[in-house]
Design brief:
This is ABC-type multidrug transport system, ATPase component. Pfam families: ABC_tran (PF00005). The protein is α/β, with parallel strands linked by helices. The chain is built from nine helices and 13 strands. A six-stranded mixed sheet has the order 5-6-7-3-8-9, with helices on both faces. A four-stranded antiparallel sheet has the order 11-12-10-13. A three-stranded antiparallel sheet has the order 2-1-4, covered by helices on one side. A hairpin with a 2-residue loop joins strand 11 and strand 12. The longest helix has 17 residues.
């Protein structure tokens, strides 16, 4: 493992914010930390960064890099009146990085920022600011990247662009990446492993797709003539537009799809509707 936290606990004013939390992430792996606002996600990340000292527990980072961990907590801190290139140059100088022009251009290209943008960062979209923040976090060639709620405030295009960047960094740069969110859809699309944090405790963890499958009780099945299906009468179902929300076990989905096909129902999509209540209440550890 590149980074791991063991039995991490932290209290503020006799209120336990983290309670014996265990988390780890390996090279090339994307790990998601799912939790409601106030669950303790940011506190955990500050402990991983060394910004906050836990009351108990340890953090171990195994990496032969100049700076083993980089990332963004809450939102990127940028010089809003400077352009992206000059922001990188200043942060690189502060961190003692060789900030020659070719290196800075390479870092901007890595995160997909346009090289011809000379205007101040204050004119950037939230998605572009996030990508610039990631470029700054990568300046010291870290082995692990930690991103606190990176999709907050982004439009759908910004979310898609950032997702692709995160996947590319894990695959091509071989980074261990930990990111947090309070929205399951933001994590399920790209994460290998999920950790579910509730009131300071990890209540569920495992491979992301398995956790989703195990905690799915409803599927959204869409087809132009879905409401005319006779097969669906055997299930608890509700209709909205051209979609049916069907209560069916994961094991029976394939059989239901087969029945609909035999009826002549041309399915355009079938996706699980995750039960967050089950995910947060079904403790596996």
């Amino acid at each position: 493992m590149i980074i791991s936290g063991h039995d991490l606990s932290k209290s503020y004013d006799n209120r336990k914010v983290l309670d014996s939390v265990n988390i780890s992430c390996a090279t090339g792996e994307i790990c998601g930390l799912l939790g409601a606002n106030g669950a303790g996600k940011t506190t955990l990340f500050k402990i991983l960064f060394g910004l906050v000292t836990p009351d108990s527990g340890t953090v171990q980072i195994s990496a032969n890099r100049v700076k083993p961990i980089g990332g963004i907590i809450e939102k990127p801190a940028l010089y809003e009146y400077l352009n992206a290139y000059d922001n990188l140059k200043i942060f690189g100088s502060i961190q003692g990085v060789n900030v020659n022009q070719d290196f800075l251009i390479s870092e901007l290209s890595k995160v997909g920022l346009p090289l011809d943008r000379k205007d101040p960062v204050r004119n950037f979209s939230m998605g572009m600011k996030q990508r610039l923040g990631i470029a700054i976090a990568l300046l010291n060639n870290p082995a692990c990247l930690v991103l606190d709620e990176p999709f907050t405030g982004l439009d759908p295009l910004g979310v898609a662009t950032l997702r692709k960047l995160i996947v590319d960094l894990a695959e091509k740069e071989n980074l261990a990446i930990i990111l947090s969110s309070h929205i399951i859809g933001e994590l399920s699309a790209i994460c290998n492993t999920l950790y579910v944090l509730k009131e300071g405790r990890i209540v569920n963890t495992g491979p992301a797709q398995k956790l989703i499958a195990d905690n799915t009780g409803t599927y959204r099945i869409c087809a132009e003539n879905i409401s005319s299906s006779q097969s669906l009468k055997a299930y608890e179902v509700s209709f909205k537009d051209n979609c049916a929300l069907v209560s069916v076990s994961t094991e029976m989905v394939a059989e239901l799809i087969r029945q609909l096909y035999l009826e002549g129902i041309c399915i355009t999509s079938c996706s699980p509707e995750l039960s967050l209540e089950r995910l947060f209440e079904t403790a596996t550890i």
